[in-house]
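Entry:
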Amino acid sequence: MVKTIIMPRLDIDMEKGSVVEWRKQEGEPVKAGEVVAIIMSEKVTYEVESPASGVLARILVEPEVEVPIGAPIAIVAEEGDKPEDIERAVEEAKKALEATLKAPAAAPAAPAVPAEPATPTEVVPPAPERVKITPAARRLAKQYGLDITKIKGTGPGGRITKRDVLRALEELKVVPAYREVKLTGIRRLTAEKMAKAWQAPHASLTVEVNMTKAEELKARVEAEEGVKLPYDAIFVKAVALALKAHPELNATFEGGVVRVHETVNVCVAVDTPQGLVTPVVKNADKKSLVQIGREIRELAQRAREGRLSMEDVRGGTFTITNLGVFGIDKFTPIVNHPQVAILAFGRVAERPAVEDGRLTVKRTAWLTLSFDHRAMDGGPAARFLMAVKELVERAEPLRG
């Protein structure tokens, strides 16, 4: 029987996805359970398997084309399927796909209004004739800053073609005014998700935290366990414990509903060659610093190698992000939708401080909490941020 492969739902907030790569081409044999395509959604790649053995009869969606979940993306024909059954399935799938991609109908035209009697008007000189140029040629000329009125077209009717622009460039020996970088894959998804997240009313709070005891604890754990402990582990643990005491921030906000989660799953932002991803440390409040540190390193490694699974990124309830490694002192992050808050921290460094009325030097870091003001007010957010600060400055409660 002919089988239809559809765009799968990979996560609860997924609305659409795109094919990154087709591992099989039309007409190639496939086996049930064999990977035929790589799908991307919400910064994660996912392998789509063939639902049956047979032949990949038709590919309906090209790479990088976004389609809604449930939309047909390919047809698999099993051995013995009749050609007419395959064609019928392909046509039905095409119609279903077109229905999901169809743009809203244009608004009806306004009713005609009888024209008023003509009145003498001022004679206006005719507008200059529009330059005939192909879209590709226009983009290329704009990229290199060329005046298209100075280029002679050799296309039909004197239309300027891409070849004409290339010839002009060769004659002038010019360099491009800019270069175009098409957003694809994770970078495109990140851009779309950040634009969606920024629609929420953001508010931010910033505080400086004394890192002296935290660094002492970090050094002791590293010496006793023989492991390297990242600063991220300190803040993941502090955030997790603070979220247990302030659960209103361990939440997501969608459709006008705030969902306060029972489990504390902290996302850690990771910079990769493909873009920013946020794998999740599950049940962070129940794990030791060593466990959290080890998990962060493993997740970051898989992220940079493009090997994150859906389980690695599913179910996050809060996010931390760290730009201290780049020498950044403090910055204001964007909430990782649909979560309601995110904590940013910068580099740990020696800074002037006043203690008992005297000027001294302390190892400190700046923390900035951004939150969705629809889901909470400043008071709960401030109390949570001060709880994180206290946990980091006391340090010892983080060890368990």
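The chain has a mean pLDDT of 86.
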